[in-house]
Every structure is written in C-alpha cells, then in structure tokens.
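Quarterly update from the structural biology core.
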Amino acid sequence: MSILKIIALLNEKGGSGKSTLSINIATALHRRGEKVVLIDADPQGTARDWREASPENADLPSVVALDRPELLLSSIKAIAANWVIIDTPAKAERMSANVIRIANIALIPVQPSAADVWASAAAVKLVQSKIDVGGQIHAAFIATRVSGQTKLSKEILAGNWNEYGLPLMATAIANRVSYAQSLSDGLSVFDTTDQAAKVEIDALITELETKGWL
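Predicted structure, tokenized:
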C-alpha cells in the first residue's frame, strides 16, 4: 500500500484562499489517478458545502469532516488514500498545531495584504517548532488572489520571504472569478473554461513535484 502523504493549507486569517486551494489541489491529484481525500477541518464547513453542491457523478475527490483536533489525530490513520489534503480553520491554534504535527507539506496562502502576512506568523512558528524538535515537514508561502496591476501584488511577489521564515512558491494564484464561481457550483476550475486557472493549479503541482515534495 502506498504511504499516506498529507498536505495542509493553513493561515490564521480567514479568507486567505485555503478552501479554494485545498479543493483544487485535491481535484488535480484526484484527476491524475491518485486516491485523494479532502479533510474539512473547519467547523464552518466550506469544503463540505462545496461537495454537497456538486452535480451527481462529478469527478471530484471525497470530503471527510474532521473538525475537532482530537478526532483528526485519532482518525487520520484509518483513511484509505494516497493523499490527504487538509483545509484548516482560521483562528484555531490547537487545530493548526495538530495538523502540523501530522502534515508532510504545509502551504500558507497569503493575499497581497499586510494583514495576511502578519497572520501567517502563527503558522510559520508551528512549522519551525516541528523542525526544531527533529520533525520533517516541507513548507512555503503561496501568493493568492494576486493581480499583476496592483502595487501590493507586485510587492508580495518581489518580497524577501525568507525573512518571514519560509520561502514563497514561484507559482502564484491570480484573482480569478472562476475560482469563486466553481466553488459555489460544487466544482473545480478543471470543470470551467478558464484555461489560465487550470494552468496555475497544474503549475503548482508541478512545482511541488520539482521540489521533490510530492
């Protein structure tokens, strides 16, 4: 049986793009033939609502609700999958700590705003704490809802991210209507006509593979 690998999306700030990325990363891996489960660790239930809105027979990964920290740790080993993607809640340090404890990869979405960058400090601290005690985890920031025309977007892409403790992924996720629309329709960007969005998600997967993280 293949070894289970876990990708966590986390940032203490709400609205950073965790659910959108979780859904589309999970779908991208699922459509590559991987056995994928998307865990909704957020009591708000965005991923669950997304899957419940999906059309019948949609080619999408399954979603499992594990939104209590103790339940997550006790249940994760029983999941039959090659990949688990975890969509985490905002302002939930205990859940985030448990997620980091089991994750192989942590991606921290940050929008072009100082508030997102400041909020990411808690996630960075958890990653560094795991590494400090000998734990193994790959981690990076990923820019989301980026617009090439704004000063803030340019600054976030050009910034020295290592001063915040982690590198920034080369792949950035643009501010596209298709991400929000596909989520509300219970689908992924791979079910839309937005080729640029599909390229972005595929590029992210490729970058993770190139780094040797997948």
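Residues 17 and 109 are 6 Å apart (CA to CA).
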